[in-house]
Amino acid sequence: MLDVRNFRGADYDTDHYLVVAKVRERLAVSKQGAQKYDGERFNLRKSIERKVRKQYQIEVTNRFAALENLIDDEDINGAWEKIKENLNTSAKESLGLHELKQQEPWFDVECLGSLDQMKQVKMQWIRDPRQSSIDNLNNVRREASRHFKNKKKEYLRAKIEELETNSKIKNISDLYWGISDFKKGYQPRTNIVSDDKGSWVADSHIGLARWRNHFSQLLNVRGVSDVRQTEIHAAEPLVPEPGAFEVELAIKKLKSHKSSGID
């Protein structure tokens, strides 16, 4: 909700007032409806370590040594598939895959136990809706909420201390990674694209096909040789450079016999 105001002067023959609001809507695909991404994400943070980076360079060099004898007239798509396969295999063996976070990092076994206890007390209240059950449920809820808040505070305090340590020892890479995680916050994933008819499409495979078709039409341009060089029209007419006599004559016309600026 960006802005809300009422128009008291608008007459609609009613005792209500007209209210106008400006609303900004963000379209996001829910995790249940969106299909899972089939690709693999590599753990790029491990590339900061010198040993891992050296291992990746060695593996890439060894795998690309087999591609030096490629035939020049080989299909470019086949060559690209070999190059991509070598890069992906080297990255998977040296860097490893990035594991997506399924839950908050501060949510540990103790938090899970508090959550299970709250569920059990709630089921007991549903089976026996007495005042004592309600009071017990409220007490367990407050205790679980307090436990979650304390866990989150401890986690944030530990992360801040880690950032301070990285700043003191000049570990700039880990410092920027940590700050980026704090500032990024919640980022909804949007897989929505528009098709040829202008309708919204949320399917990931259809979206990839749509982007592939778009760039194919944009980049695969035929008839480049027919393009003629267009005439360049300048803002001012092209004039020859002034000669020495013209410069001398212009200086004599000045009152102080010198130019007043860069001209």
Question: Key features?
Answer:
4 strands, 263 residues, two-stranded antiparallel sheet
Question: Please, could you describe this protein's structure?
Answer:
This protein is mainly α and 263 residues long. Among the domains are: 44-94, no CATH class; 109-184, no CATH class. It contains seven helices and four strands; from the N terminus they run ββαααααββαα. The strands form two sheets. It has a two-stranded antiparallel sheet with strand order 1-2. It has a two-stranded antiparallel sheet with strand order 3-4. The longest helix is centred in the middle third of the chain and has 38 residues, at 131-168. The model has no long low-confidence stretch (mean pLDDT 79).
Short synopsis of the structure:
By secondary structure, the chain is mainly alpha-helical. It has 7 helices and 4 strands; from the N terminus they run ββαααααββαα.
Helical element count?
7
Major β-sheet annotation: 2 strands, antiparallel
Radius of gyration: 34 Å
Strand content: 5-15%
Return residue spans where pLDDT drops below 50 for at least 5 consecutive residues: none
Shape: extended
Determine the mean pLDDT.
79
For this structure, the quaternary state is single chain
